[in-house]
Amino acid sequence: MSDPGFSLQVPCAHGAPPITGRIRATLDDFKVDEQLGFEADGAGAHVLLGVEKRGANTGWVAAQIARHAGVAVREVGFSGHKDRHAVTRQQYSVPLPTSTDAVACLDWQGEGYRVLTARRHARKLRPGSHRANRFEIAVRDVHGDASLVSARLQAIAMRGVPNYFGPQRFGREGNNLERALAWANGGPGPRERGQRSFVLSAARSYLFNVVLMERVRRGDWDQLLPGEAVILDGKRSFFGATDIDQALLARCRAGDVHPSGPLAGRGEHAASDEALRVEEAVLDPHASLLALLANERIGHERRSLRLPVREFEWEHDSAGLVLRFTLPRGTFATAVLHELIGDAWDATEGGED
Fold first, then answer.
1. What domain count does the chain have?
2. Helix (H) and strand (E) counts for the chain?
3. Cα–Cα distance for residue pair 270/293, rounded to 1 Å
4. Nearest-angstrom CA–CA distance, 78 and 103
């Protein structure tokens, strides 16, 4: 990129990855199960569909569901994009007349997708309405020291990993970030609303990663600094902590709260003192991107610097290593794999988040 400070590569927190291996050798090697956190209402103007897709794009499947239902694709709802090069299960909603039996939707299938469940629901699914994603990932052709692998897996289970935005967020070969930089430096912005959103999101995500990278280098990505904007686990709520007392440190060690980084935009910084000084020093070279986000009226928010890896299980089989874990919505399995497998950061590029 034209700015020499731009790089999509990020440092590991637990040391160099202890193994090499292949990810996504087949579609069945990467499975994602969306967890909504709520059940269908059982009645209403919509039908909630549990859909399995294999090697299919989330938006493309939404278009197929719209075709089956005879509605505009914009009327089909889903909570989040899922990886294309994988076997994934997620929920879609579609409006159907109450005279139509939801069971009829179980016949809807096509290349790369099939409907598994169908129940009446009162509301359209909105982006970000799911609670978490459960992953099952097989790593093939594994090479590495078995004792180092075991220690790394234990470290990830106990401490989590840096909550990086994965390379998927930045477009193929970082093209969305390139477009953001050109726009910030006086070039034209994308005309289409959806493309503008992708480009701005890439800029904001990159700036977050830049701050997190510095905290990883400092070794305090999972610790609270004076003036930290402390974020509640699994929430967007945060509070400024000028006094880091023992009770707050204990909550951080227990995973009840986490240090946070900026999702840049308009508004006052939530951090202060040392935490703010770290952020300002890192972000100062990227003033043009900060100005772009502010000019586009995007509000300042916070995101946890630490990603807890919940329900983490692993086993060795004849073909390699199988990992199972649960992550909250809006986070990336890439961040977990990056701490374990060499080249994992690049191997997963091209999927959806």
1. 2
2. 9, 16
3. 17
4. 19
**Would you call 27 helix, strand, or coil by DSSP?**
helix
- Are 163 and 211 within 8 A, CB to CB? no
Range of the domain at 171: 167-303
Q: Is residue 51 part of a domain?
A: yes
Q: Are residues 176 and 74 in the same domain?
A: no
* Full-model pTM: 0.92
Computed on alpha carbons and rounded to an integer, the radius of gyration of the chain in Å comes to 21
Query: Is residue 297, in this structure, part of any structural domain at all?
Result: yes
Q: Each residue's pLDDT tens digit in the chain (353 positions)?
A: 445 456 789 999 999 999 999 999 999 999 999 999 999 999 999 999 999 999 999 999 999 999 999 999 999 999 988 888 899 999 999 999 999 999 999 999 999 999 999 999 999 999 989 999 999 999 999 999 888 999 999 999 999 999 999 998 998 888 999 999 999 999 999 989 889 999 999 999 999 999 999 999 999 999 999 999 999 998 889 999 988 999 999 999 999 999 999 999 998 889 999 999 999 999 999 999 999 999 999 999 999 999 999 999 999 877 799 999 999 999 999 999 999 999 898 755 444 44
3-state SS assignment for residue 59: helix
The enclosing domain of 96 has a CATH number of: 3.30.2350.20
Choosing from 83, 101, 220, 353, which is the catalytic residue? 83
Q: Are residues 256 and 177 in the same domain?
A: yes
Residues 234 and 290 both lie in one domain: yes
| Catalytic annotation present for 343 | no
Angstrom distance (rounded) from CA 283 to CA 285: 6
Nearest to 116 by CA among 91, 98, 95: 91
Which residues share a beta bridge with 49?
Answer: 92, 118
Q: 194 and 267 share a domain?
A: yes
User: What percentage of the chain's residues is helix, strand, coil (to nearest 5)?
Assistant: 35, 30, 35
